[in-house]
Design goal:
210 residues, mainly alpha, 10 helices, 79% helix, globular
Length: 210
């Protein structure tokens, strides 16, 4: 087991990571505002499963294998970049609308919401890189089983992510009402969202291995 001081230090880092906006948070906000907080929470379940996958991979050393296999990391990286570009196009295309804009939509089933949340999480190679680079810094073999320490710290990160993102999902309605009374802000937000997603996609596609 990690020591209390090590666990607290990692928990603070995990909370800071969770508060940093990224593709997972953007997707959850979009689903929550378009379909309601319940849909956002279902999507969050899919995102959480993706995090569990990466945690288990990191704990058993499989993530390192992923980066060692030629082209495996590149396939994951470019897949994530293409998905982000698709999301950017949905925001910027003629007639596109802001994910914060309230509008009638055909509701996705819980099954599809969960799978899309999982896909968003699984196609984010940043998560794998964070687990590969972050976890080893807080794991100390002299304190016991490396596997146990990795699972405890990974569970801490997932818990922090769930708490932060669930709070965002549940407060999405307030954001929607604020923007709904200010049409100009909706247009600005749509272009800002598309620009950020596009920039993330380009950075992901051009980023070299570390």
């Amino acid at each position: 087991m990690p020591t209390l001081s090590t666990w607290l230090a990692f928990a603070l880092v995990a909370i800071g990571m969770s508060l940093t906006p990224g593709p997972n948070m953007m997707y959850l906000v979009s689903r929550s505002l378009c379909q309601g907080p319940a849909a956002g929470l279902v999507s969050l379940g899919g995102v959480a499963l993706g995090l569990v996958f990466y945690m288990v991979c990191a704990a058993f050393g499989l993530t390192a294998l992923l980066f060692a296999v030629p082209y495996a990391y590149d396939v994951l990286r470019f897949g994530g970049a293409i998905y982000l570009l698709w999301l950017a196009w949905q925001a910027l295309k003629p007639g596109g609308r802001s994910p914060f804009e309230v509008r009638p939509l055909e509701k996705d089933s819980n099954h599809r919401l969960f799978l899309m949340g999982l896909l968003t999480s699984a196609l984010n190679p940043k998560i794998a890189m964070i687990y590969l680079a972050l976890l080893p810094q807080f794991v100390h073999p002299e304190h016991g089983s490396v596997l146990t320490q990795s699972l405890v710290l990974g569970t801490t990160q997932i818990t922090a992510s769930l708490v932060v993102n669930a709070s965002v999902v549940l407060s999405a309605g307030t954001i929607s009402r604020f923007l709904g009374q200010r049409p100009a802000w909706l247009r600005i937000q749509r272009w800002l969202m598309g620009g950020v997603l596009g920039a993330l996609a380009l950075r992901m596609a051009t980023e070299a291995r570390r």
